[in-house]
Amino acid sequence: MSIKDLFPRSKNPPQKSEDSAAEISPDDKNVPAKKTETDDRKGQKVRQEKKAENDSDPKVSSVKKNDERTAAAAQKSDIRSLVDYVIDEEERTFRNYINPRFWLEKRRDIQQIRKKEEHGLNIYEILAGGAAPSREYYILTVLSCIIATTGLVQGSTATIIGAMIVAPLMTPILAFSLAVIWGDLQLIRISLGSIAKGMFWAILISSAISFIIPLPVYSGEIMARTHPTLFDIIVALASGIVGAYGYANEKISNTLVGIAIAVALMPPLCTVGIGLGTMNREVASGAFILFIINLISIGLAGAVVFWAMKIHPPLADETRVARRAMYQIVLSVLILAAIAVPVSIFMYDDYQRVEAKEYARLAFHREFPGLEILSLEAEEGKDHYSLRIVITGSDEPEREKILFLKKSVITNHPRITDMKIIFMKGDVLMMK
User: What is the DSSP string of 154-168?
Assistant: First the structure.
């Protein structure tokens, strides 16, 4: 065999080959075939030989045929179930079977079911993927926790908002609600595991930061998350509904950043860690109640939205789907009701305290318009308040007027039983 037989001629100018060991002269008319082409031919030949061996092997051939038969049988069963679903018993007549319009209508119904199924699977994949405890999930959890803790310690609202946007905790909560609707036990376990792991790392990191860095006083951002009210439940429910609807409806998915800010999950968790790191049980317990409110409210809202919008397999039994949804809804409502009762009591007490302080403030300004109140504190007793007011001004008020004011306030307000007024002028501190 000659060189001409091995390397056919090429009309294109010769080029350098990366795999060749030496350059080919431009005067050479015979260009060798590339090594990669030879490797591709060899690989193709090997694959063909393996395929021939598999085809000749009766065991491999039998397994392939069984897999193909199983797939074909599953596809036929799916089609048969879909047809049975769209055709009611009273419609199964010979007249309908020979009517082309009947089959066109059923074809449209099947297409709508397929479209709905594709939409539901898309939502399922998004939430299931976000609920998995992946490396990205841990990275976002840790970073958002650090940002939120720093913002809480400094009292920086902008920093806390940044942590709210980064935090990934909302996705596994909605994934849990969707898993309950679908009856997917595996996704339920994954979602609960992700929520628990996110809570653990957030509390651990924030408590470590607050333990290492000394905190002389708690900022206003920290204290604002230690006394939950009924308004927090309302905001969490509304935000959870919008969040679930945002996942279910692609048209409003761009508002999820605002939803994450409205129903904050990471700042209350970090406040719990700050309370534990500073050994303050009141701060930790109050913030934990707020987190539980947000957690249950989002789960409840997600279950209601996904059930109402029928985000579940089209051929699923509606009765079972409704039963699973009602289980979560009823349980969530009971938990929120159990939390709402003490929260309502505390909220009413705070309202009474603020109302008593405001009443005393207005009465003082009516009697002494030229004086200013430096501080007004209310010490709570059993069904009553004791007020302590620090005032200042250029002239000391008359003692008779002060006594008249105290008597008037205590007499007209049922919960104020005592009032101390301290006048401050320069370095002189006088008790009235």
Answer: HT-HHHHHHHHHH--
Contacts of 298 (CB under 8 A, 6+ apart): 170, 173, 174, 177, 236, 239, 240, 243, 244, 263, 265
User: Considering just the CA atoms, what is the radius of gyration of the chain in Å?
Assistant: 36
Distance between CA atoms of 344 and 339, rounded to whole angstroms? 9
Q: Which residues pair with 424 in a beta bridge?
A: 392, 429
Average pLDDT, the chain: 76
* The pair of three-digit structure tokens given for residue 115, joined into one six-digit string: 């479209």
Tokens of 35: 């090594």
Retrieve residue 405's tokens: 């004011």
Residue 417 phi/psi, 5° resolution? -110, -15
Q: State phi, psi for 28 to the nearest 5 degrees.
A: -75, 135
Structure tokens at 209: 């930061």
Q: Find the distance separating the first CA and the last CA of the chain, reported in whole Å.
A: 123
The string of DSSP letters for 34-50 reads: PHHHHHHHHHHHHHHHH
Tell me the pTM: 0.67
pLDDT tens, 147-169?
999 999 998 888 988 888 888 88
Partnered with residue 416 across adjacent β-strands are 385
Tell me the residue length of the chain: 432
Cα–Cα nearest to 171, from 119, 136, 202? 136
Q: Are 127 and 171 in contact (CB under 8 A)?
A: yes
Q: What are phi and psi of 92, to 5 degrees?
A: -85, 75
Q: How far, in Å, CA of 298 to CA of 355, rounded? A: 32
H helical segments located in 183-219:
185-212
Give the whole-angstrom CA distance, residue 166 versus residue 145. Answer: 9
Residue 230: pLDDT over 90: no
Under 8 Å between Cβ of 331 and 180: no
